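Run Tyr recombinase domain-containing protein through structure prediction, thanks.
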Amino acid sequence: MPHETIKSFHNYERQYALVLSRIFPEKYPRDFTQKHGRQGRPFNLTPSNRAVIEKYRTHLENEGGSSLARRKRILILIANIAELLGTDFETATREDIEKLVSKIMNHPNWNETTKAMHKQTLKSFYRWFKGNSDFFPEIVRWIKCIKRSGSNKLPEEMLSEEEVQKIIEAADHPMKRALISTLWETGARIGELGSANIRNIQFDGTEATIMLNGKTGMRQVLLLSSTPFLRDWI
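Sure, done. The structure for Tyr recombinase domain-containing protein is below.
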């Protein structure tokens, strides 16, 4: 395995561990975060939701087929969802979920892709949590998860997450890995990303935001899986 690929894998492990330290801060002493870097603020989670997310983490790890980077992103998304929900997953009502989706759709710092990712993660989570991984329970069945895209490409013509991951791992420079990952995650046009400056990127522990200037004006985009690649490069 090439040196850069080994470095990237260990970076995935470190970033994954830092996300876990934000969700389960009591399990990670201060010397861990001092050794592995600033992890960002801990998520404000109820004890019940933290316990449920721990079970979901185990489920994601045991089901296989998910890369470390994808599991990291899912855990950040579900932790964001738990914070916005403001109550326990176990006792949440249809009305609670409707208010949650409204918060997601009106979040000032999330673009359409980020909002869609949160809604899809919410539905998938409840399918596991209340639907035995077989069906979407009534509480989330009504949620529409239509990804908006200006592309005319058919699904079979688009790269899968696993294919993008292989391209990133094959890249021979940190800048290339950062650009490929950011382009895929944001769905930005190459011109939008090419005109951005380093000062347009703001880091916050295991997350980052980038300010892009497109046809509709300036917009701030949340970055999850691209953050470690940007840190390696910048």
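Strands lie at 201-204, 207-214, 217-223.
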